[in-house]
Amino acid sequence: MAVTTGAKALKVLVCGGGIAGQALAYWLVRGGHQVTVVERHPVLRATGAQIDLRGQGIEAIDRMGLLDTVRGIRVDEPGVAFVDGRGRRWGTVLANTSGKGGQTMTSEYEIMRGDLVRVLHGATKDDVRFVFGMGVESFQQDSDRVRAHFSDGTSGEFDILIGADGQGSRIRRDILAADAPTPYWPVGIHMAYWFIPRDATDDSIRETYNAPGGRMIMRRSHNPTQTQVYFALWENSEEATAVHRQPVEQQKQFWTDRFRDAGWQTQRFLAGMWETEFFYSQEVVQVRTETWSQGRVALVGDAGYCGSPYSGMGTSAALVGAYVLAGEINRHPGDIPAAFAQYHATLQPFVDHVQGEVNPKLLRFGFPQGKLGINIIRAMGAVATFLRLPELAARFAKEDRGGDWQLPNYSHTLKA
């Protein structure tokens, strides 16, 4: 279906200036619409740890004309090594750089979140109105418009409101029914990550270490001066779930208590945690809801269908979702309910596949409680990596983690 002849430009409000929000804004302005992005953070939130692009996410960036730019700022991470308590590597999986098949444990397109946010901002800032330091506190809607009430006390009317405000989305909270089931689907893992100074022992290969008690540590170094540290813990307790809402000092104490005897470089990593300016702690969850829209309000990215870090497709799903949502709005500018319904119908198979790839039972195997389980993982992994089985499987794969779902073509809906 082509763009409706003579349709007026829509006035769209996007709540959230991260990856999904900016990607959505990019495609909407090229469909001829007027877009305002509001972001609670006082400046562009160009921070965060390392992310990757895979499958359809790579294609989505390519359609934006930004793939060469992303290539130029990729993190140098040629592979993933597995280490023991002394730091000795007992197996390594290299990235698939053949241009064929799928990605391995590390993608050919590893990039820092902040760098991708800056790339997207550079592509949108001249055409989109950005307002920082302001969020949407509430809204009302009727069949023709949405009235948004902002955190600075002002209000404004728009044709559409899009929640791109992440896993903890306020917009999602307000469009779901009061008796709707919780949108959060825990996978059993808690995670924290932070930056520390890089030292001479840190090379570009990512390192992963298993410790007894369902604990995992990962180290990756993204530039000459900084190293990223990730702690992951398999624990089902009220304390673990609640700690992520506590003050940062309490969060750090929780991770110190859980990991102080884990071995390898734990003491170095914990010392750096207490000094770092960048620290984030979270329960690993997926966001699953029965709907991504209500009336003239819709969700995109993690706000609607967070896949969790263990899907490996969170960033790609945000880019793909933004592309499909904008494409359907551009196709149906005079019929927003139809646009949102087609957005859901088109994207749902992709989201189902991405989220379905996260199997808690399989993940549990990667977090053994005892030394026997760790030794079994090492033995199996050592054989597989010696034979290069992960690299061969990726190179000859017919599809990446997003499955065989094809990115739709919306080029006929673009005006600019």
From TrEMBL:
<dbReference type="InterPro" id="IPR051704">
    <property type="entry name" value="FAD_aromatic-hydroxylase"/>
</dbReference>
<dbReference type="InterPro" id="IPR002938">
    <property type="entry name" value="FAD-bd"/>
</dbReference>
<protein>
    <submittedName>
        <fullName>2-polyprenyl-6-methoxyphenol hydroxylase-like FAD-dependent oxidoreductase</fullName>
    </submittedName>
</protein>
<dbReference type="InterPro" id="IPR036188">
    <property type="entry name" value="FAD/NAD-bd_sf"/>
</dbReference>
<feature type="domain" description="FAD-binding">
    <location>
        <begin position="11"/>
        <end position="326"/>
    </location>
</feature>
<dbReference type="Pfam" id="PF01494">
    <property type="entry name" value="FAD_binding_3"/>
</dbReference>
